Every structure is written in structure tokens, then in C-alpha cells.
Amino acid sequence: MDERLTQYKPALTAYFDIHPGPEVDIQILLSRCPQFATLLIQNPTMCLPVLESAFAQGLSTTVSSSPQQLQLTNVPPCLKKRVSALRSKEAVGLMGVEGTVVRIGMTRMLEKVRQFECAKCNTTWEVTSKPEEQNRMVVPRACISRGACKSTNIREIKGSKKCVDYQTIKLQEQVSKLGVGSIPRSIMVILEGALVDSVKAGDDVVVVGTLIKCWKPVIKDVRCDLETVIQASSIRLKNVNGAARAMVTDDLRREFDQFWHAHHDTPLAGRDVILSSICPQVYGLFIVKLAVALTVIGGCAYVDDRGMKTRGDSHMLLIGDPGTGKSQFLRFTAELSPRAGLTCTAVKDGGEWMLEAGALVLADSITSHDRASIHEAMEQQTLSVAKAGLVCQLNTRTTVFAVTNPKGRRFDIILVLLDTVHKEDAVVAVYITETSKSADSMLGYESVLHKSFSADPTTEYYQHEHVILNHLVLTELATTPPPSTSPRNPSTAAPVSQQHTHISSQVVNAKQEDPMTSYPNGFRECWGDYREEEDLEVASQQLYKHQKSLPKLPVPSLADTCALYLQTVRPLTTDAEFVATKAAVEAFLKGPLGPVLQKRLEARAASRPNSSYLAEWWNTLGYLHVRDPVVFNVSYFFHFSDSVHLAQRSQVGRAASLLVASMAFRNQVASGTRPPETLGKGQTPLCSTAYKYMFNACRIPRRDADSYRIYDPSTHHHVVVMRHNKFFKVHQGPTPLSFLEWTSILTHILDVAGSIESSVGVLSSENRDVWADARTQLLADGNAATLRDIESAVLLLCLDDDAPTSRTDVSRALWHGNGRNRFYDKCIQLVVFGNGKAGLLAEHSMLDGMAMSVYADFILTGLHKQTIDLGDTTLTHAALVARLPAVTPLKVHMSAATLQAIASAERTFDATVAGHDVHVESFFGYGNHAIKSFQCSPDAFVQMAIQLAGRKHWGKSVATYEASQVRVFLHGRTETTRSCSSASHAFANIMVQTSPVDQLSVKVTLGLFYPLFIFGFYCLNNKQYCFFTAQAGLCRDACNAHVKYMKIAAQSKGVDRHLLGLRLCLQPGESAALFDDPVFARSKYWQISTSHLTHDLFDGWGWGEVVPDGVGIAYSIKKNSVHFNIACRKSIEGQPSVARSFGHLLEESLLEMRHVMEADQALKLTAKL
After folding, report:
1. CATH number reported for the structural domain that contains residue 993 in this entry
2. Residue 460: is its pLDDT beyond 70?
3. Is there a domain that residue 547 lies in?
4. What is the CATH number of the domain that holds 37?
5. Does 429 reside within a domain?
6. Is the four-CA dihedral 305, 307, 312, 318 of positive or negative sign?
7. How confident is the model at residue 986 (pLDDT cuts 50, 70, 90)?
8. Which of 498, 720, 729, 766 could bond to 888 as cystine, CB 3.0-4.6 Å?
């Protein structure tokens, strides 16, 4: 071993010159030597000396000075405890405790070991002080040798004492990680050796050690007392985000050097990169971020020839109106300075006075004496303490960062800019005054700044949330002391200064010179008209290369629509009703109003050469203007099949893999490199408009009519994770995180999420007007930045505690869950449960399920076939930690009004859930393969089974909706396929009639004797052959009619969208008998709403019913099975479940249809024989 270590001698020598002792990573030790690591964790008191001895022996010939004690670090998450959770059972093994140092004891010398010798037999032994007994050294009274020697003449061996530094600190739980109303607990920690004076009061630390019980001094007639303390093995500083703080290591220094080398020619562009990492959740405010950065980093103190010292640290007061992001800057500054807000106080403990960290909680209405102390810290950079004999003056590197609202009126920034000396300030002030009312008032000024200070004028000046420097680098940049040398103004700064003098002259013309940006405010506010975002569809990008060549949505002829309409309503009417409806249709077709409406609709289509006549109407009237909650009326879900890969079957592994795959797909969409969709063998291109609204998108609640926001994907890369109703923002740059990085991040979030709290997420399940009012209140409470982070995220990941097992339970949990750990306005929510089952919940307003299914197919197929790159899986723990981005808990300030709204929303949501019924019917009798053998379309065949089940349930045929996509046209979405036809009506009627032979006997006979029975029966009675043939023939006729209508709908020539457009073209005072006819309303009262989507890696999907007494049926047709998700309102209490009953009717209908089709096939075969 010595020979192998020789080559590392220089590195080891340099390491131990800086570090007092070797560090042992427990998790690495567990992976390399699990047996010993387990023993070390279970009994560190016995195993740690063995490990230290092994280190000392191995390094004895390599390192001249023997290192001090080992420091055990990075304990597994399961061994991390809170102070308040420590119990007596913890005093048997290794553990880690996080907290804040609130008190530092004096450094003492502790006699650790002393050797004694027997004067008679010369036996020597060591006596060690025991912390359990107040470190008392128990002197032996007699020789301890095993021989006959019982001498009491014991003497101490001179020079045998071994002493170490000794210190106690007080560790308190971090208040931020406690539940509401919890009191932070504290515990004493013993530091020895190199750990002494390694932390300061106010530091957030992680202590690894063992829990021991220390007896207090024993006094006669006084109850014995003991105290639990932690014997520390290592202690590490942490910042508020939980990442261990590091010194300015060679890696960090190298990163600094590489960064500035890359920006050698454009140093101000490098500065802009740093500023884009300052408080990234706040958009814009470049000057404020620059001031914050300079204030936090500080400058160099200057001492002149006379000895007069000028401080280099500045202070900052930020004044602004409520909701402008002042508190966000304050919090971010506190994150960069872990001891922000701390002072000190003198306290007495154990007969000694010592300094203890204290917090400057309130700074308003302070006394003049206290104000003088603060002024001393601000001006003189010192803090004087004189109490109980303690007279000291502490040097402080103090920067005061304060924010306030203006008093009495709005703060006017122009007053600050006006200066009687510099006329340029007046020019800028006038410009701001003239343009302050416009939405893009600052774009021109920022453009001038960009052109003046950036080497590349074509690049965007400010990239919101483009966090290139991670939080660790920023923290070290802010906390590393500045050099002692005086600053110098480099010669290269002269051109910058010269250009600054010309800025004011360019500001006046800035507005004319500045080109419009695609995302002027970091997002686009969408109101339902696809044309408004047309400029985002770059023709040179692969995804949108067919957009300009797509055909327009056609306006069908009025005669064809009227004829087709009469065919579809016939099974829904009586003879008398049909006569009246036919007359109304003929009057509409031949009268003056019908052709006029047709011309108006055609004119509308012609006026939209780059869109469709229907898109805006459909998006607004069908979705954004609807005031019903989205969760039960708009949202739909996909239930993903379980992963076959072991690493992806846990909650964390499943979520991490889905995020890696999602980011890969999202980056293809954002960059436009995603190949466009095509349909059929002819590879007909489909419209790609929907993809713009998939990621970084969210529906925004507003009074009367909602909007939809899509944020700039080039500057918004973060993901928001929900856990226990709390939001966590995961910062990441353009480079996607790996599977290992995501697993570490998600494990950290699970660890720090804490208890379940009230969540604003449930507000998004409310009526849209109610939610709009609640959102307005949240903005007034100062939550603008938090809401923006949620709404602008790539997607939302929901980590639930629930562990549903059955398909019905999973469907319920995906469709609505408990309402708290969701944000239903988000376009994509990935949901992963505690048992690893997963799916997604999608908001339907601006895009349909087919585009979302392409995304789901990409991630599921890629993960299943392992074609998606999960990143480097060989990273060491240290390398992984260094690469992890910041995770920021998003705080939500809740006023009394908001809390009341949340309570009301929870009651409404729970009542709505209680009134809904969901059932998954999985039919394994047959599937796609058998249906094709019946010479039927699988989709049409299942639709006829639904018609038959509906006929049995309601006793009549009802209006049935099936969605057909029309994305072969520009901005096309869906058309309705009316599944209920005269052919389906006839088929359902004949199936429910009593047959010439009892159906039950037919079912029983079908089996081994079925061919013989059919042959014999055919010979005895040819009428039964006719009956089965009639049933099968009507079934095929109904399937063919359905397929025919689907082809018409796919060409956007169905009746529903055309009639909707005609009705919307009516002007005030106009009316048409056709639209007032009760049959017209009945024909679009969709008691059965259906849609078909099949994927081998889907276990189901679904949505809600369309009308109160209807059912929503989502189905999948697989090779040997058919699966239905049935959602509806619950029936009267005590009655059977409607959804379950309808599911049984579907199973029964499919079985009966199989018997009919197989009997027809067998009879035809027998007839030929």
C-alpha cells in the first residue's frame, strides 16, 4: 500500500497542509465497503478508532506530519435527523443533524489521554476522559494487570498526556424547515481538535456525529440529571439552499478564469451574464440588479497617507411601489450572505460570559442608542460590545440592504434622474415621461444601452432567467473578501466612459431604431386568435416548414350541410318532429337568411388568409370564455404504463426519467428542430401551431374571459416541482440536467418539503371568475414573482404521497387528485405517485390531445427503448453536487382573504369530487385483431358497442360525440363525428329485440358444440340464419356509416362546426327557425362524449362528461383487449354507480356483438358446405 501511495505524496502533503484530517464520505464508503460502513454507522465509537489507526498506519511513510482525527461526511439521507426528532434510540449510531449555530463557547484545552504505570510490576495503561462523565479523568486505585499484582502504588508517566482543543457550540433547528407554530429546539455539540473555531455564530451547518448522554454533577439528595449532546465527527457550513459552501477552490478559480477568458473582448457582456443570474425570477430591472451586485460584492477599503480609512462597502436603499419585486431582491441578497441580519449579544452560561448570535429582527422605531450602534456598523465597519467585563470591538464587513414603499404617493423615478449639473439626465427624464404610458416604454432605452455596451448588437440584451452562473458561484463571488490592493481604473474603461456620454443623444431616437422583440415582456399574452402568435412560427425551422403551405379550413356548402344534418337527427326524433325539422331546414336553405349567413361566413374565411374562420371563435367561446372550472370540464389525463426499468420504478426515478425525456422533447420544440407531424401513408403534413402552447405556457384567469400566456422558451428553462402543496423552483440552464442530477434534486425536495400546508393550487380548481378574483388578491399580497415562476415554468411536476393501485384509482388521482397538490391552469403537469405510478394532466384550451399524445409517445417510447440519453451515470457524489443547480422554495404570502378563499375552494372541490363517478372497464374478451377479422373498423365497432350500451341504459338513441382532428388544415383543431346514425339506431334496436331463439341458449351452446349446433339448427330452421345475418349485416352497415362520416369530418365538412359558424354570423335582431328548433339543441346535447386513443405504453386516459346527465368515455383498443374510462355525475344516493353500470353494459354489448359476428361467420361457412 505504501508503494501505491508514494505517487500521491505531493498531493497528500498539500491536502494536509490545508485540511487538518482526511475526510471520509460515508456514501462512497457504503458503495465500496458496505460491511465495514454498516458497522461504522451502527457503532462509530468502536469502529472510528480502528479506521483512524488504519489511516495513520497507511500514511505514516508518506506524510511527514500525521493527520488529525478523521472527519465523517455525507451521511445517507435516512440518517439525517432534526433536533426535535432526536430520541434515546439515536444514541447508538452515526447520524447527521442540520441547524444554525446560535452560541459559541470558549476554546479550552482538554486532557484526552493520560498514561499510568504500576510501580511494582511496571504495567502501563491509558486512561481516557469520558465526555459522558463531564470529561473527568478517573485515576486508577490499583494495578489493573491480570496477574497477582494488586499494588496500589500507581504513578503517572511524565510526558504521557495528550491534549486537544475543546469547544462547545449550541445548535438550533432551522426555523424555515419547521411547520407553522413549531418551536425550534436546540442541542449542545462538542467540537474537538480541528473542528474547534471552524464555525461562527449564525452559520447554517451540518453536523455528523453520535448522540451521547452526559451526566451532570452528582449532588447528594438531588435527583440525578443527564443531558444529551452530540459528539461531532465533522461539521460543514451550508448556505440557505442546502448546498455545502466551499472555499475558493481550484475548480472555482478555473471556472472564473475560463469565464473571463471567454469574455475577454466583451467584458461588459460577461457582466450582463452575471447580472442575468441575479434574482432571475424578476424580469428586467437591469440597473437595480447591477446596483445589487455591486452592493453585495463590495469594494476595497482605502487608507490614505494620513491614515484615514475609507470603507469600501456600500449600502443600498431600494424604494418602489408595492409589487415591483423589492422583497425578491431582499431575499436573494440574504441567500448570497448566509449570516445576513445577524448581530451579537453577551450571555452568561455556566459562570462564563460569551458572545451569542442574535438577529436584527425589527429596525423600525429603534432607540437613539441602538440607532447609533447601527450607524457605527454602517460607517466605521465595527461593532462595540461592553458588558459584564467583556469589552471588545468586532470588525464587521457590513452592508445594509433595505427596501421600503414610498410614503403618501407613488414613487417617481424622474425625481432621482433630474440633475441640474448633467443635462443628459434631463433628456432621459423627458424621454421616460413621454413614453411611460406605453407598454414598451423601456424597450428603446434598453436597446440603446445594448448597442452601446455589447459587442454583438444582434444578441438579445437581457435574457430573463438565463441563469448561467449557478448559486454556488454567485455565493462565493459575494462572500469572498476583496483583495487588499487598491482598485485601478483600467485603460480599457475609457471607451466605455466615452460612449456613456453619447447615450442621451441616442435615447430620443431609440424607439424608432429598436426592433420589436418576439416576447416584449418575457411572454406573449394570447387571447384565442392564433394569428397573434403567427410570427413565432419561423418557416426556416423544421417544425413549421409546412405551415405556409397548409390548406385553409374549408367552408362546406350550405346544401351539403343541411342534407347531412337531416340524416344525423333522424334517429333522435319522432316522425312528427322530423317533419317539422325538415321544414325548418328547407326554409333555412331556400330562404334569404341561410344564404346570407353562408356569404358572411365565406367572407370571414376570406378575410383570414393566414388562419381559419373558426379558430378564434372555438378558442374563446369553447374554452377561454367558459367560466366552469377547468379540472372537471376541460382537463384530460394520460395514465402511463409502469416502467420496465428498475431504476425508473420508484417515485424519484420515475419522475427524474420523465423530466429528462420531457426536456429533450421540449428543446426540440423550442428550437424548431422537431420534425412536423404527418398523417397516413401519403405523409400529409399536420398543423404545428399547437406546439407553441405546450411548454412554458399557462392559462391566466380573468373576469369574463381568460387569456393564455406563453413565455420565451429561450430564457425560461426552470421546472417547478410541487410537494406537500408547496412549490419548488429548479433552476437550470439551456443544457438539460441528467438523470442522476434530477434524482438528487428530487430527493432533496422530498427531504425538505416538510409538512403539508395550505396551497394556492386549489384556487385554480374554482370557477374562473372566483379564481380571477383570488389571483388578483394574491398579486396584491406580493406574490407576483411566485405566480410568474409557476406560470412560466417549462412544466409542473407533482410528487404525491398517494399510492393508487387499481386503474380506476389511478384515473381518479390523475384526473383531479385531492385538488391541493396541483395547479390546474398549467398546460402540462406530470404526476408521479408514491409507488412510482405516473401520468400527466393537461389543460385543453389552446391545444388538443393528439399533439399531447405525440409528446407522451416520445417520452414513453424513448424511455422504454432506452433511446433517450439520460446523461452521465458515472459521476461521483462530489462531482454531482458541484453540478447541481439551485432549488428555491417559492414562498406564497397569504392574507386573511386568500386563506378564506382557499378554504372555500377546498369545500367546493371536495363536494364536486364527491358528486363525480369514475370507473375503468377493462375488457379482455377480444380486441383489435378479432374485430378486423369481422371485417369492421375497430374504432367504428367499439362505437357501435357504445351505441348499444347507451340504448340499453337510456332506452333510446342519444346524441353522441366523437372527436376527429382536422389538423391537415391551417389552425384546424377538431370536428365532430356524430356516431349516432340511422344505421346505428337500427343495429341497436335489433340487438335489444327478443330473438327467434332464446339468446341465453345460444350463448350456452356456443362452445365445443357450437359448429354442430349451428349446422343442425341451420338445417332445421333457416330463419335463424337470417336473424344472425341481419344482426351482423346491420352491425357492418352501422360501422361503415360511421367510417363514412369520420372521413367527412376529417375533411372538415361535418355539420357541427359549419352550423356553429353560421349561427355566430347572426346579427342582432335576426333569428332562424332552424336554430330555435328543439331538435337542433337535442342533436348537440352530447349525452355520450367519446374519443379514441391507443398506445401500448398507456394504461388509460380520460376526461369528464360534457352534460350533467351524460358520460365521458375515453377508450383504447389494443390487440386483445379494449379499455374504457367512464366519467359521469353520481346517481341518486343509494342507487348503483352509473359509471360502473355503463361499464358492465359495454362489456355485455361487446360479448353479444362477438357472438353475433362469430355466428354469422360460422353460418356462412356452413351454408357454403
Report:
1. 3.30.559.10
2. no
3. no
4. 3.30.1640
5. yes
6. negative
7. very high
8. 729
Cell triple for residue 235? 461539521
In this structure, are 955 and 1097 located in the same domain? yes
Under 8 Å between Cβ of 259 and 470 = no
The Cα–Cα gap between 534 and 523 comes to 14
Q: In 613-770, at which residue ranges do the beta strands (DSSP E only) sit?
A: 636-640, 678-679, 684-685, 697-700, 707-711, 719-723, 726-730
Among residues 978, 1110, 1082, which one has the least CA distance to residue 577? Answer: 1082
Same domain, 943 and 971: yes
- Average pLDDT for 556-574: 96
Same domain, 179 and 282: no
Does the predicted model carry a pTM greater than 0.70? Answer: no
Instruction: Point out which residues pair with 638 in neighbouring strands.
Output: 840, 1101
Is 968 within 8 Å of 679 (Cβ atoms)? yes
What number of other Cβ atoms are within 10 A of residue 403's Cβ? 17
* Of 562 and 1014, the one with more pLDDT: 562
Q: Of the candidates 868, 887, 914, which is a domain's last residue?
A: 914
Which residue from 20, 108, 122 is spatially nearest to 63, judged by alpha carbons? 20
Domain coverage including residue 1039:
924-1000+1008-1055+1068-1168
Sheet of strand 960-965: strand arrangement? 916-923, 1122-1129, 1111-1117, 1088-1092, 960-965, 974-978
* pLDDT band per the 50, 70, 90 thresholds, residue 1058: very high
Strand bridging mode 796-799 / 719-723: parallel
Whether residue 936 sits in one domain with residue 894: no
1049 close to 966: Cβ distance less than 8 angstroms: yes
For position 647, which CATH number holds?
3.30.559.70
Cβ–Cβ < 8 Å for 700, 526: no
Question: Does one domain contain both 36 and 117?
Answer: no
Query: Is 77 or 442 the better-scoring residue by pLDDT?
Result: 77
The amino acid that residue 883 corresponds to is R
Across the range 1124-1132, mean pLDDT stands at: 89
Cell of 411: 414613487
Q: What is the CATH number of the domain that holds 105?
A: 2.40.50.140
Say yes or no: 806 and 663 in one domain: yes
Q: For residue range 854-894, what is the model confidence (pLDDT) as tens digits?
A: 999 999 999 999 999 998 877 777 788 888 898 999 999 99
C-alpha 660/C-alpha 740 separation (Å) is 10
**Cα dihedral 771, 776, 780, 781 in deg (nearest 10):** 10
The span from the CA of 1142 to the CA of 1150, in Å, is: 12
User: Is 907 in the same domain as 975?
Assistant: no
Distance CA 972, CA 613 (A): 10
Distance, CA of 942 to CA of 991 (rounded, Å): 15
- Whether the per-residue pLDDT at 570 is higher than 60: the answer is yes
Give tens-digit pLDDT for 649-699.
999 999 999 999 999 999 999 999 999 999 988 789 999 999 999 999 999
Q: Which three cell numbers stand for residue 282?
A: 424578476
The confidence band for 1016, taking pLDDT boundaries of 50, 70 and 90, is: very low
Tally of domains within the chain? 5
- 312-341 pLDDT tens trace: 778 888 887 777 788 888 878 777 765 555
DSSP string, 409-422: S---HHHHH--SS-
Which residues are part of the catalytic machinery? 844
Q: What is the mean pLDDT of residues 236-263?
A: 64
End position of a domain, from candidates 914, 934, 965 = 914
196 within 8 A of 107, measured Cβ to Cβ: yes
640 and 756 share a domain?
A: yes
What is the per-residue DSSP string for 87-136?
-GGGTTSEEEEEEEEEEEPPPEEEEEEEEEEETTT--EEEEE-BGGGTTB
Residue 1028 lies in a domain: yes
Q: Count other C-beta atoms under 10 Å from residue 136's C-beta.
A: 12
CB 37 within 8 A of CB 30: yes
Let me know if residue 256 belongs to a domain.
no
